[in-house]
Protein backbone atom coordinates (compact mmCIF):
# COMPACT_ATOMS: atom_id res chain seq x y z
CA UNK A 1 0.00 0.00 0.00
CA UNK A 2 2.75 2.58 0.74
CA UNK A 3 4.19 1.97 -2.75
CA UNK A 4 0.89 3.07 -4.35
CA UNK A 5 0.83 6.26 -2.29
CA UNK A 6 4.39 7.14 -3.27
CA UNK A 7 3.66 6.40 -6.94
CA UNK A 8 0.67 8.78 -7.00
CA UNK A 9 2.73 11.60 -5.49
CA UNK A 10 5.59 11.01 -7.92
CA UNK A 11 3.20 10.86 -10.90
CA UNK A 12 1.88 14.39 -10.20
CA UNK A 13 -1.75 13.22 -10.16
CA UNK A 14 -4.18 15.48 -12.01
CA UNK A 15 -7.71 16.28 -10.86
CA UNK A 16 -10.58 13.82 -11.51
CA UNK A 17 -11.70 13.82 -15.13
CA UNK A 18 -8.26 14.59 -16.51
CA UNK A 19 -6.86 11.75 -18.57
CA UNK A 20 -3.76 13.36 -20.06
CA UNK A 21 -4.77 13.26 -23.70
CA UNK A 22 -6.72 15.38 -26.13
CA UNK A 23 -7.15 19.12 -25.97
CA UNK A 24 -9.80 21.60 -24.95
CA UNK A 25 -12.24 22.20 -27.81
CA UNK A 26 -12.19 25.67 -29.33
CA UNK A 27 -15.40 27.69 -29.72
CA UNK A 28 -15.21 27.11 -33.50
CA UNK A 29 -14.99 23.35 -33.02
CA UNK A 30 -17.92 23.39 -30.62
CA UNK A 31 -19.99 25.49 -33.05
CA UNK A 32 -19.31 22.93 -35.80
CA UNK A 33 -20.91 20.20 -33.70
CA UNK A 34 -23.81 22.35 -32.51
CA UNK A 35 -26.27 21.12 -35.14
CA UNK A 36 -29.38 20.42 -33.06
CA UNK A 37 -32.77 21.99 -33.63
CA UNK A 38 -35.20 22.24 -30.72
CA UNK A 39 -38.62 20.78 -31.24
CA UNK A 40 -40.85 23.12 -29.34
CA UNK A 41 -39.70 26.33 -31.04
CA UNK A 42 -37.28 25.41 -33.84
CA UNK A 43 -34.30 27.21 -32.34
CA UNK A 44 -31.23 25.92 -34.13
CA UNK A 45 -32.85 25.43 -37.54
CA UNK A 46 -30.51 26.86 -40.18
CA UNK A 47 -31.31 29.08 -43.12
CA UNK A 48 -32.72 27.33 -46.16
CA UNK A 49 -36.00 26.12 -47.59
CA UNK A 50 -37.50 23.25 -49.52
CA UNK A 51 -40.87 22.43 -51.05
CA UNK A 52 -42.90 19.24 -51.37
CA UNK A 53 -42.07 18.71 -55.06
CA UNK A 54 -38.31 18.92 -54.53
CA UNK A 55 -38.72 16.69 -51.48
CA UNK A 56 -40.34 14.01 -53.67
CA UNK A 57 -37.29 14.05 -55.96
CA UNK A 58 -34.83 13.82 -53.07
CA UNK A 59 -36.92 11.10 -51.42
CA UNK A 60 -36.77 8.89 -54.52
CA UNK A 61 -32.99 9.31 -54.73
CA UNK A 62 -32.05 9.13 -51.06
CA UNK A 63 -34.87 7.49 -49.07
CA UNK A 64 -36.99 5.17 -51.21
CA UNK A 65 -34.50 2.27 -51.25
CA UNK A 66 -35.09 1.83 -47.50
CA UNK A 67 -38.43 3.49 -46.80
CA UNK A 68 -40.26 2.52 -50.02
CA UNK A 69 -41.52 4.67 -52.87
CA UNK A 70 -44.33 6.14 -50.78
CA UNK A 71 -42.88 5.76 -47.29
CA UNK A 72 -44.44 2.33 -46.78
CA UNK A 73 -41.16 0.84 -45.50
CA UNK A 74 -38.95 -1.80 -47.09
CA UNK A 75 -37.74 -4.90 -45.31
CA UNK A 76 -36.58 -4.00 -41.83
CA UNK A 77 -36.70 -0.26 -42.46
CA UNK A 78 -39.57 1.66 -40.86
CA UNK A 79 -42.71 3.00 -42.40
CA UNK A 80 -42.97 6.78 -42.55
CA UNK A 81 -46.67 7.08 -43.39
CA UNK A 82 -49.94 5.70 -42.09
CA UNK A 83 -50.50 4.30 -38.65
CA UNK A 84 -52.91 7.03 -37.59
CA UNK A 85 -55.00 5.83 -34.67
CA UNK A 86 -52.92 2.67 -34.28
CA UNK A 87 -50.70 3.53 -31.32
CA UNK A 88 -52.93 1.59 -28.90
CA UNK A 89 -53.30 -1.43 -31.20
CA UNK A 90 -51.63 -4.76 -30.48
CA UNK A 91 -49.12 -3.95 -33.23
CA UNK A 92 -48.87 -0.14 -33.23
CA UNK A 93 -47.48 1.63 -36.27
CA UNK A 94 -45.36 4.53 -35.04
CA UNK A 95 -44.92 6.79 -38.06
CA UNK A 96 -44.45 10.49 -38.66
CA UNK A 97 -48.21 10.79 -39.12
CA UNK A 98 -49.14 8.89 -36.00
CA UNK A 99 -46.76 10.04 -33.31
CA UNK A 100 -44.03 12.50 -34.35
CA UNK A 101 -44.59 15.43 -32.00
CA UNK A 102 -42.79 18.42 -33.57
CA UNK A 103 -41.88 19.29 -37.16
CA UNK A 104 -38.46 20.78 -36.24
CA UNK A 105 -37.40 17.48 -34.66
CA UNK A 106 -38.25 15.65 -37.90
CA UNK A 107 -35.90 18.05 -39.72
CA UNK A 108 -33.29 17.51 -37.00
CA UNK A 109 -33.49 13.72 -37.22
CA UNK A 110 -33.22 13.66 -41.00
CA UNK A 111 -30.31 16.12 -40.86
CA UNK A 112 -28.34 14.13 -38.30
CA UNK A 113 -29.12 10.53 -39.16
CA UNK A 114 -30.11 10.23 -42.81
CA UNK A 115 -29.44 8.80 -45.26
CA UNK A 116 -28.57 5.74 -43.20
CA UNK A 117 -25.50 4.92 -45.30
CA UNK A 118 -24.12 8.49 -45.13
CA UNK A 119 -25.64 10.44 -42.24
CA UNK A 120 -25.47 14.24 -42.07
CA UNK A 121 -24.50 14.62 -45.73
CA UNK A 122 -27.63 16.25 -47.16
CA UNK A 123 -27.68 20.02 -47.73
CA UNK A 124 -30.10 21.95 -45.50
CA UNK A 125 -32.38 22.73 -48.49
CA UNK A 126 -32.75 19.01 -49.24
CA UNK A 127 -33.52 18.28 -45.58
CA UNK A 128 -36.20 21.01 -45.61
CA UNK A 129 -37.63 19.54 -48.83
CA UNK A 130 -37.70 16.02 -47.39
CA UNK A 131 -39.39 17.30 -44.25
CA UNK A 132 -42.05 19.04 -46.34
CA UNK A 133 -42.60 15.93 -48.46
CA UNK A 134 -42.87 13.54 -45.49
CA UNK A 135 -45.25 15.88 -43.66
CA UNK A 136 -47.28 16.15 -46.87
CA UNK A 137 -47.71 12.45 -47.54
CA UNK A 138 -48.86 12.14 -43.93
CA UNK A 139 -51.56 14.77 -44.65
CA UNK A 140 -50.09 17.21 -42.13
CA UNK A 141 -49.24 20.00 -44.60
CA UNK A 142 -50.70 20.92 -48.03
CA UNK A 143 -49.10 20.19 -51.43
CA UNK A 144 -47.80 23.76 -51.75
CA UNK A 145 -46.07 23.78 -48.34
CA UNK A 146 -42.57 25.24 -48.22
CA UNK A 147 -40.53 24.17 -45.21
CA UNK A 148 -38.12 26.67 -43.74
CA UNK A 149 -37.02 27.87 -40.32
CA UNK A 150 -40.20 29.86 -39.73
CA UNK A 151 -42.79 27.48 -41.19
CA UNK A 152 -41.45 24.48 -39.25
CA UNK A 153 -41.14 26.39 -36.00
CA UNK A 154 -44.78 27.45 -36.30
CA UNK A 155 -45.84 23.77 -36.58
CA UNK A 156 -45.21 23.07 -32.91
CA UNK A 157 -47.77 20.35 -32.42
CA UNK A 158 -49.11 17.74 -34.75
CA UNK A 159 -52.85 17.66 -35.28
CA UNK A 160 -54.73 15.62 -32.68
CA UNK A 161 -55.38 12.76 -35.10
CA UNK A 162 -54.04 9.78 -33.25
CA UNK A 163 -55.05 8.15 -30.02
CA UNK A 164 -52.26 7.51 -27.54
What does the model show?
With 164 residues, the protein is mainly alpha-helical. The protein has a single domain (2-153), classed as Cytochrome Bc1 Complex, Chain D, domain 2 (Orthogonal Bundle), CATH 1.10.760. Helices cover 40% and strands 4% of the residues. The chain has eight helices and two strands. The protein has a two-stranded antiparallel ribbon. The longest helix is centred in the C-terminal third of the chain and has 14 residues, at 124-137. The radius of gyration is 22 Å and the shape is globular. Residues 157-164 have low confidence and may be disordered.
Task: Summarize the entry for a quick read.
The chain is mainly alpha-helical. The chain has helices at residues 2-10, 27-33, 52-62, 64-67, 96-99, 103-113, 124-137, 149-153; strands at 49-51, 146-148.
Helix content: 25-40%
Q: What is Rg?
A: 22 Å
Give, in order, the helices and strands.
HHEHHHHHEH
Number of strands: 2
- Taking strands numbered 1, 2, ... along the chain, how are they ordered across the largest sheet? 1-2
Number of helices: 8
Query: What is the CATH superfamily classification?
Result: Cytochrome c-like domain
Number of domains: 1
Largest sheet: 2 strands, antiparallel
What does the overall shape look like?
globular
What is the fold named in CATH at topology level?
Cytochrome Bc1 Complex, Chain D, domain 2
Mean pLDDT across the residues is 85
**The CATH architecture:** Orthogonal Bundle
The CATH class designation is Mainly Alpha
Poorly predicted runs are 157-164
Give the termini distance in whole angstroms: 60 Å
Please state roughly what percent of the residues sit in beta strands, choosing from under 5%, 5-15%, 15-25%, 25-35%, 35-45% or over 45%: under 5%
Amino acid sequence: MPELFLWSIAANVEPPGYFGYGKVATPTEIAGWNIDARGNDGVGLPAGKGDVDHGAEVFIQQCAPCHGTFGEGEGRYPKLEGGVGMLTADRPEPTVGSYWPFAPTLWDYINRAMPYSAPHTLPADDVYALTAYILNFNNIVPNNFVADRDSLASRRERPARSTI
